[in-house]
Design goal:
Length: 493
Amino acid sequence: MNTKPLRFFRRGAIVTLAAVDTSRTLLEVLREDLHCTGTKEGCGEGDCGACTVVVAEASGDLLKYSAINSCIRLAHSVDGMALWTVEDLTQADGSLHPAQQAMVDCHGSQCGFCTPGFVMSLFGLYQTAQGAAISREQAQAALSGNLCRCTGYRPILDAAQAMQALPPAQVNEAEVLSNLERMVHISRGLEANSSYMTPRTLAELLRQRAHHPDAQLVAGCTDVGLWVTKQHQQFAKVLDVTQVAELRRVEYYPHHIAIGAAVTLTDAFAALVADRPHLAEFAHRFAGLPVRNSGTLGGNVANGSPIGDSMPLLIALGASVVLMRQSGKRTAHRELALEDLYTGYRTNVMTKGEVLAWIKVPKAIAGETSRVYKISKRFEDDISAVCLGLNLHIINGRVRKASIGVGGVAATPVRARKTEAALRGKPWSQTTIDQAMAVLRKEFAPISDMRASSTYRSTVLCNLLQRFWLESQGIALTDLRQLSPSLDAELAA
Ligand SMILES: Cc1cc2nc3c(=O)[nH]c(=O)nc-3n(C[C@H](O)[C@H](O)[C@H](O)COP(=O)(O)OP(=O)(O)OC[C@H]3O[C@@H](n4cnc5c(N)ncnc54)[C@H](O)[C@@H]3O)c2cc1C
Ligand code: FES
Ligand code: FES
């Protein structure tokens, strides 16, 4: 099998690279093949943001911009897209882009190692804001995947808010869109017999999955990318699901939302938050923006990490998964409850020819009280020690239905069936919660590891149930982020 040429639109021209190995990352291609060393490698695992670049795809008549981590993204996955690196922002007259100028004006850089990554996240924000004012919260969300060890974040956040006041810089979007269209035509027909397969339709994906069961299936590569950069795995064949039109859609039905497995975490959480607005903070706490822009909900669910974040929530909401495969000339599918997907640590019921196609999430209904709590050492861009998703239907002071998903307590994401039973049919009261907490403590025996001890996990889990009860009673908890200790008050004391 050959590797088809890799093409993307950059600096006003289509770049064509022949024979790029299927396992090479975008960062390697930029730095080693194109000698564009402005994009830095810090961690090589999606954590620091030094390698951030911006890609754009056509979305109808518009361009959809995404800041992504080039260190864990396979190079071939940006085939057919427009790409900007930090070298590409300076204007034709030599002046700096507002994202760069604002960093200069606000003193947003010291050693400078993180700066190209910050500038690219700012560029992504600049393009998506389309001239609108940028709030502090939007700036924080856009920079959630970038770390700086020396400047401190205030000047960088100031830069994010200052760039809109500078003379504007514009991308020639009509030119970009017409070149994206051109690349579709140039690439047509080259897909056959390529070792990096990017099917465009579900039928094509299922056919290729059946013919190449040994190919490494990838979506956004935010898990798989680390197998390449940290474990040095190489893939002879890759089957990439991210361009499958059907799997990129979010579909709305009377009682549920169907999220295609290739929908990015950014878009999947937007759909979930639109239906249940209280999930907004949880969505923000899933990794950082560049990871959410590449990673997919399907990848999170299929990867099945015991500390993956979407599964406790989805289990609590009663989500199911649709698995599909080609069977002879026909397409076969089966649907199962999300918790039944998993058989053990990172193992699941999917056969070699099967793919995860859809995640179906019941819509919010009157009477439901749902919450999801993530406990991690860092607020942003960190993996959970434990995660608890709850969905209760309380009618006339009694628990009619209880559905609880838990992460970080077993080899797979799990459903807390015994705790659910301890709640179901009982009065919604502190006594019931006390009893349910006792059951929850015994239901799982979590391990101790670098993220948390077993005792910590069990204790926190039960405390989260208590917190859920308190919040349902309208009791405002102390939020450390709202505390602003006053020096005057301390001196007076
Ligand atoms: C810095 C960083 C922070 C992170 N933070 C979090 C976090 O806060 N919470 C969290 O839960 N995770 C986190 N992750 C993990 C990761 O981002 C998620 O698991 C993500 O959803 C994976 O999706 P993906 O599209 O990148 O999957 P990929 O890496 O492409 O694939 C993951 C696995 O799923 C399989 N797969 C993908 N799509 C399908 C499909 N359609 N059918 C069958 N199998 C499929 C692949 O074969 C592979 O085994 C983080 C990762 C990084 C690098
Ligand atoms: S090098 Fe750290 S996120 Fe890519
Ligand atoms: S300026 Fe030194 S790491 Fe950010």
